[in-house]
Design goal:
By secondary structure, the chain is mainly alpha-helical. The protein has two domains: 111 residues, no CATH class; 56 residues, Orthogonal Bundle (Hypothetical Protein Yqey, Chain: A, domain1), CATH 1.10.1510. It has a two-stranded parallel ribbon.
Length: 168
C-alpha cells in the first residue's frame, strides 16, 4: 500500500474469510472455503487467495517471481486493492476490533491517492506542522474526492490540535 491508515496498526494476514462462507473461531472456513491463513473466495486457488487482487486488478496468483523477472509486474501490481482492505476490516469487526477496522477502511480510501499525497497528509497530521485552517481545507478536499473517513480524521485532528495547542 502506498501509505498507512493511521494509528500504526497493521495486519500481516487474515485468518479464513470466504465469499459465501463464514468465519469460525480459529480462522477455519465453512461452505466451500479453504482453511488456514489468507483470504479465499469460495472454491479458492492454492494458498487461499482466490479473488484477492492487486491495485492494478491483477490476481495475486499471477504475482510470481517469474513474472517479475519477465518485467510483467509493475508498481500497481504490488499495491493492495481497497477491496482487500475492506475484507480485512470486516474480519477485524468480527473479532471485536472496530478501531483496526476503521484504520483499514481509511487505508482503503488512501489507495485512491498517489504516494506523494499520502506522505503530504501524513506530514500535515504531525503536531505543529499545519494550522487548523490548513487541516480543515485538507479535510474538505479529501471529502470532495470521496475519502470521507480520511476527511473526518483530518477534521478531528484540526479540532483536537487547536484545543490542545498542537497546531502550527
Amino acid at each position: 500500500m502506498s501509505g498507512g491508515g493511521g494509528g500504526g496498526e497493521g495486519m500481516s494476514g487474515v485468518g479464513g474469510m470466504s465469499e459465501g462462507g463464514s468465519m469460525s473461531e480459529g480462522g477455519s472456513m465453512s461452505e466451500g472455503g479453504s482453511e488456514g491463513g489468507g483470504m479465499s473466495r469460495a472454491g479458492g486457488e492454492a494458498g487461499g487467495l482466490s479473488g484477492v487482487r492487486a491495485l492494478s486488478g491483477r490476481p495475486v496468483g499471477e504475482l510470481t517471481l517469474e513474472a517479475v523477472r519477465r518485467g510483467e509486474i509493475g508498481l500497481e501490481d504490488l499495491r493492495i486493492h481497497p477491496e482487500t482492505l475492506e475484507w480485512q476490516a470486516a474480519v477485524a469487526e468480527q473479532h471485536a476490533n472496530p478501531q483496526l477496522a476503521e484504520n483499514l477502511r481509511r487505508a482503503a480510501e488512501l489507495t485512491l491517492l498517489g504516494d506523494q499525497e499520502v506522505l503530504a497528509i501524513y506530514a500535515a497530521l504531525r503536531p505543529g506542522r499545519a494550522t487548523p485552517v490548513e487541516l480543515n481545507a485538507l479535510a474538505e478536499s479529501l471529502a470532495e474526492r470521496g475519502l470521507p473517513r480520511c476527511a473526518a480524521l483530518v477534521a478531528e485532528a484540526a479540532e483536537v490540535y487547536a484545543r490542545r495547542g498542537l497546531s502550527a
